[in-house]
Write a structure and sequence with these properties.
single chain; 2 helices; elongated
Length: 45
């Protein structure tokens, strides 16, 4: 499924969005992990 989701404000900036695909998993996992590095550094386990 490659259906694009159109949002007027995003489109005016040249952006478009599509549904998440299984091939996105590694990227999304790494992206999420990178946003939590500072918090996880405080956990001693």
């Amino acid at each position: 499924m490659n259906e694009l989701i159109e949002l007027p404000r995003a489109a005016s900036l040249g952006l478009s969005f599509r549904a998440i695909q299984s091939s996105d998993q590694d990227f999304l996992r790494n992206l999420y992990a990178s946003t939590r590095v500072d918090e996880m550094a405080l956990v001693f386990w």
